[in-house]
């Protein structure tokens, strides 16, 4: 169960007959890989309705991963179509609680979605564009529900940005099939999430890459071509004619409110307040987070759970002194304000990945793409390339995400007895976010020291983090577990104590998140002696790291034996 499962959600999960079978059979996994649903969707779209009759509106179907107005490709195309046909643009958002349960969405993420939807509704309102938020329960019926709504509105076209997860691709495929059968509505799903779309970065024999370094070597030149349009900003939607507010059907949509919560995913008031202080909603906040990362110096108070947008950020030279400038050397430090914290905004699409690259290059005065390991901007763009990489994997090799989960409570509670792991896990509970190194250390510890199935961790992170993103999360877990694509070699096992000394040298990160250890001084903070830990009410380590390491190596070498 997630960090904040309500009794209603626990019951829904227990009763859930709609949950997908999370461990696919070998046969089904192979089938999905042989004919990835992404290509099935693109084929169905091309075989769908062409040149529909004009209709009364064009619909943009906004989803969980594209919650913005700026630089949004499907929205821009929907707007262009509406302008061309001289009919209004309507924006639809379907809340689907069953999908959120089935996909382990965190209550934080759903609350963030609702907060962002409210901002979007206000912004669209200024353009006389209605945002209609519907809640639909049977997840499997969403395609017919959306199609019925489109018929009711006499829509000619629906546009959406592609979501690359298997269930979402199959949902859109079903909509294309229903629309084709009725013959009235043209469906267009476009690439928007990645900087370079999945399918465009291919090995010489036409396959997708499964190893990051060669992927990056092929990815960067695609962007660097002078003819590349990958980083172009999609235009803002044009305003509807003001008269739409009086339209018998569409006028009413302006009054439809974004719900204040989704049942089973509500946060208690204290948590809602806390999480919205760390993660302000809206595009302006996302751009401000980015601006500060690129142009201001790290602030000592910023590594922990504090409001990131308080006044007083000091502007500095972006190439040297800003967080971006220092990213090359400082990015792995967990005890400081070193990274951008843009992941919740990227995961929800409150800002586009293209905008991140464009702004980073501009701030560092670069005319050409930089993916070098020797500059802050190059290293940062490499991280965005990891995001593309993992999304390409999910799209091209769907089997990677067709796994399942098992338990491990001490780890979830941040009570393993290893301070850096516990600080990381408690950061996740408090903030709904973790530093990348924290994720790697906690993930590696679960998988290699505790020898617990990585799918438990994958599920728990999705249920807890505000930036939960299937591709990055699944990729990170399989890297840590030395499974799947581009894994860490199985014998690379982080020593959590040396990691702790390197990434949190003074122990400030640990003290912040593990208050029982706040008074521990010096090197003991990384591995408190047992008598001291006992006195402070801090647990003994669950395992001895050196023994656990040997056990993991033995198991990985001798798969299938005890
Ligand atoms: C086990 C594990 C699980 C993870 N789960 C998620 C997740 O659910 N959602 C998520 O967005 N990231 C996930 N990551 C990747 C990474 O930890 C976060 O993206 C990063 O910590 C976010 O902080 P930031 O925005 O300050 O990153 P920065 O260092 O500023 O990087 C900028 C952006 O690049 C992307 N990025 C950075 N590192 C990675 C990476 N290793 N893989 C993919 N993209 C990356 C993110 O979009 C990030 O916001 C996971 C990593 C691991 C090891």
From TrEMBL:
Gene3D superfamilies: 1.25.40.80, DNA Cyclobutane Dipyrimidine Photolyase, subunit A, domain 3 (1.10.579.10), HUPs (3.40.50.620). Residues 57-194 form the Photolyase/cryptochrome alpha/beta domain. GO terms for biological process: circadian regulation of gene expression; entrainment of circadian clock by photoperiod. The keyword Nucleotide-binding does not apply. Binds 1 FAD per subunit. The keyword Lipid biosynthesis does not apply. Its cofactor is FAD. This is Photolyase/cryptochrome alpha/beta domain-containing protein. FAD binds at residues 327, 339-343, 380, 383-390, 467-469. It comes from the Eukaryota. Keywords: FAD, Flavoprotein. GO terms for molecular function: deoxyribodipyrimidine photo-lyase activity; DNA binding; FAD binding. Belongs to the DNA photolyase class-1 family. It comes from Trametes cubensis. InterPro entries: Crypto/Photolyase_FAD-like_sf (IPR036134), Crypto/Photolyase_N_sf (IPR036155), Cryptochr/Photolyase_FAD-bd (IPR005101), Cryptochrome/DNA_photolyase_1 (IPR002081), DNA_photolyase_N (IPR006050), Rossmann-like_a/b/a_fold (IPR014729). One of its GO terms (cellular component) is nucleus.
